[in-house]
Amino acid sequence: MFFLAASISSTNILLILAIVALPLLCIEIYYRNKQKPHKLTKDGLRQAPTPRKLPILGHLHLLGGYEVPYQAFSALGEKFGNVVNLQLGNVKCVVLNGQANIREALVTKGHHFDSRPNFQRYQQLFSGNKENSLAFCDWSDIQKARRDMLKTHTFPRAFTNKYTTLEYLISSRTEAMIAQIEPNQTTELKPLILAHCANVFLSHFCTRSFESNDKGFIEMIENFDEIFYEVNQGHAADFLPFLMPLHKKNLQRMSKLTHEIRDFVEKEVIGDRFESFDVESEPEDYVDSLIQHVKCGKSPDLSWDSAMFALEDIIGGHTAVGNFLMKLFGFLVSEPEVQRKIQEEIDEAVENGRLVTIGDRNSMPYTEAVIFEAVRLIASPIVPRVANQDSSIDGYSIEKGSVMFLNNYDLSMSNELWDKPQEFLPERFIKNGRVVKPEYFLPFGGGRRSCLGYRMVQLISFGFLGGLMQNFSIVPVENESYKVPIGSLALKKDTFKFCFVRR
Ligand code: HEM
């Protein structure tokens, strides 16, 4: 799954300020943006406040200087209110703060805000057409069909065959990972985790798996990881297209990687399945569902090429889970007490030394809560939405085409909503021995564009975390820093070595 953090790094902002804004500032300091807060539009709606802006940059400079750019949105909310108009470069944007406003955009008026930004980078990353992407396309009948087709696979119902098979897959991959870990040694966990996640995904969606030393398989995983990292970066060029040439080389590289992925998936994952699929038979996996849709000419029309993009997006979901797990372990290595509590819970819930499985989730609320706490602290942004029509939020008018930043960072990290929000405290998700998620906790978005992979995240994370904690404690490696980057799911390739000590 390709993903957007929609963040613009401080370095980017400084660079742009240096090359573009400072000279302009010498000529003229500020555009006086005289728009008065709460001015009424002709529909009787209020006009959201707009901070003063700079020529060309608009308000881009306001996003610099924060560890996470979404913190800038919280600061803007405090200063100007919960709905703020911004001009980021040449893109009209709105920042929404507050649970009620975010819910209004996601759910109540979800159908007004179901498009995605039209950044050139995304067009280029998806062969010149962002509609090929599950996460960055605008809403359409095809997207609805793609989502419906996927749901049976990404949200398998408990006690069905699909669920039991997934449970088995996760357990066998967990066992294999445990066997590969050398106790008391420095362990490069990321390649191991990614490979096992990839095999869970490939087996579940495509009924195909690979040996962990298969060269093509390893290359595919590395390619996905590199693209995932790139897509999760925000760039000023998304708002200032004249800077795109700066990204040319990088985008060419991404294009090369996506072609390599396509080659591998076509040759090694699909093979002759398209030709040999019998359209009368029941689809057994996601690949079958796609082939059946295309071959039977079901409505809406989906070309095999578009279907391949959807498939690659979903196979790429393994990267999101793998990177998330790495961050989760990055938190846990500094939380021995949390590790001890998980282990205590496992020892109580799991009899006779068998491997912990996803079937144990109901009796292991603490372990489940650990996963939510990591998701909360990473505070990955909701993929920005775009207003597909003139609309309003909280009585403020929103112009068609506005890019909507829904500040779920604030919902995850606010001092008003959470006790000690900076601390890793899984207990906050447990009430009367059960896991309870507050309604303002929206890490997977909501409404018709909500995350399609969150159940996979929960299930695989539970199985892998449970299995590893059942067998090992994780301790820091000397001189390794465990500062977990927040505000995005992606983590650099060579990151976080751990030491696993057998229990
Ligand atoms: C911890 C990991 C993950 C987090 C925090 C996360 C979060 C999100 C969020 C916030 C959105 C945007 C929702 C919205 O606009 O309302 C999203 C969209 C999406 N996610 Fe995830 N996600 C994760 C993992 C995954 C995985 C593993 C998959 C694939 C199996 C996946 C598939 C998708 C897809 C396809 C979309 C786009 C849906 C659409 O636009 O219609 N995600 N995710």
Automatic annotation (TrEMBL):
<dbReference type="InterPro" id="IPR001128">
    <property type="entry name" value="Cyt_P450"/>
</dbReference>
<dbReference type="GO" id="GO:0004497">
    <property type="term" value="F:monooxygenase activity"/>
</dbReference>
<dbReference type="Pfam" id="PF00067">
    <property type="entry name" value="p450"/>
</dbReference>
<feature type="binding site" description="axial binding residue">
    <location>
        <position position="451"/>
    </location>
    <ligand>
        <name>heme</name>
    </ligand>
</feature>
<keyword id="KW-0812">Transmembrane</keyword>
<dbReference type="InterPro" id="IPR036396">
    <property type="entry name" value="Cyt_P450_sf"/>
</dbReference>
<dbReference type="GO" id="GO:0005506">
    <property type="term" value="F:iron ion binding"/>
</dbReference>
<protein>
    <recommendedName>
        <fullName>Cytochrome P450</fullName>
    </recommendedName>
</protein>
<keyword id="KW-0472">Membrane</keyword>
<keyword id="KW-0479">Metal-binding</keyword>
<keyword id="KW-0349">Heme</keyword>
<keyword id="KW-1133">Transmembrane helix</keyword>
<keyword id="KW-0560">Oxidoreductase</keyword>
<dbReference type="InterPro" id="IPR017972">
    <property type="entry name" value="Cyt_P450_CS"/>
</dbReference>
<feature type="transmembrane region" description="Helical">
    <location>
        <begin position="12"/>
        <end position="31"/>
    </location>
</feature>
<dbReference type="GO" id="GO:0020037">
    <property type="term" value="F:heme binding"/>
</dbReference>
<keyword id="KW-0503">Monooxygenase</keyword>
<dbReference type="GO" id="GO:0016705">
    <property type="term" value="F:oxidoreductase activity, acting on paired donors, with incorporation or reduction of molecular oxygen"/>
</dbReference>
<comment type="similarity">
    <text>Belongs to the cytochrome P450 family.</text>
</comment>
<dbReference type="InterPro" id="IPR002401">
    <property type="entry name" value="Cyt_P450_E_grp-I"/>
</dbReference>
<keyword id="KW-0408">Iron</keyword>
